[in-house]
Amino acid sequence: MVQDKTIEFAALIFELTRRLQKEENEYIISNQIMRSASSIGANIAEAKYAESDSDYIHKYKISLKEASETEFWLRLMSRVQLINVQQENKLISLVHELLKIMTSIVNKVRNKKR
To answer: How does pLDDT run across 7-42, given as a tens digit for each residue?
Structure first.
């Protein structure tokens, strides 16, 4: 479930970056956000074959960091008017949903150890 959501989110960001590169000739921020957004799901995919619970948690914590970075880029893009407020709100809402899911997963694995 979370993996599917990360793929859907990365696809939305990919579409956004494609538009920015084509219509705005903007590559710096669009490349940065594409990297951070796609890294969320990539690290979760790695966690699937983690060597231990600690490794699993570590991969998810990296995904949490990447989601936070993605939120930063979205806010910056809105501030410099590369996206509008509605786009910002929609995408940040999706980031927050991913953050909640990933935090819940990390907490469940941590509590399992106790």
So the answer is: 999 999 999 999 999 999 999 999 999 999 999 999
Range of the domain at 101: 2-113
CATH code where residue 74 lies: 1.20.1440.60
- pTM, two decimals, is 0.94
Number of domains in the chain: 1
3-state SS string over the chain?
CHHHHHHHHHHHHHHHHHHHHHHHCCCHHHHHHHHHHHHHHHHHHHHCCCCCHHHHHHHHHHHHHHHHHHHHHHHHHHHCCCCCHHHHHHHHHHHHHHHHHHHHHHHHHHHHHC
Token pair 């880029």: residue: 73
